[in-house]
Amino acid sequence: MILFLVLSVLKVKFAPGLAMFSSESGPGSMRAPGRVSLIVGLFVGILAQSSRFCLVGAFRSALFERNFKLFSGLIGVLVAVIVGNVLLGKFRLGFHGMPLAHTNYAWGFAAMTLCGLAFATADGCPMRQVVRSAEGDGDAAAFCVGMLVGAGICHNWTLVSAPDKIVNGICTVGGPTVPAMIAVAAGIVFCVLAGVSSRDRI
What DSSP character marks residue 166? Predict the structure, then answer.
């Protein structure tokens, strides 16, 4: 991560179409200033590490242990994001017209089911995995590398979904490509098999 940070700050470019290129337009080009990102990231990281915050853990504790400590943190994050977006004039309820969002709800639900299965099988959401990798957890570090590699594969193998397009007030629903549908279905099967095969036997 330090290497990526240095390369990004120095704006290193190797050759057209190769590694270390950045989006020039669209949602991928939108980001907070570097100093703000580092300061806020460190602050949030400290809070996440000290509170052991985890989305998967929040639901697990609430559903199975009736412990709502982590879940209250999740509600706090949700409220903070809503308030922040309202204050900045960026709040918009729903998916229509949102950057990179589509309203193909069935495949959106299937994709998020795959995410939930993957996070539960790995015993932690992406945020928790990042924190654990910073603490020196090798399994969490492998998970984070997998997320980076997976993102690269999705963007290079047309596995990302197309967003809805609004032209002249008419919305054309986007959604996943056929290869993406196959990938999501295969991922769900893989995660279910992995979870079943690794469960504790009594």
Answer: E
**C-alpha span between 45 and 130 (Å, rounded):** 9
Tokens of 102: 């589509």
From residue 185, give the alpha-carbon distance in Å to each of 16, 100, 132: 34, 21, 29
**pLDDT per residue over 161-177, tens digit each?**
888 887 777 778 888 88
Instruction: Provide the 8-state DSSP code for 27.
Output: G
Between CA 83 and CA 81 the distance in angstroms is 6
* Packing angle of the helix pair 178-197, 105-121 (nearest 10 deg): 30
Domain parsing of the chain, residue ranges: 34-90, 99-123+151-202
Task: Read off the tokens for 69.
Answer: 């400590």
The answer for residues whose C-beta is within 8 angstroms of residue 129's C-beta and 6 or more apart is: 122, 140, 143, 144, 147
What does each C-alpha distance from 197 to 17, 117, 155, 156, 194 come to in angstroms?
41, 14, 31, 31, 5
pLDDT digits (tens, 9 = 90+) for 5-14: 788 778 777 7
pTM to 2 decimals? 0.76
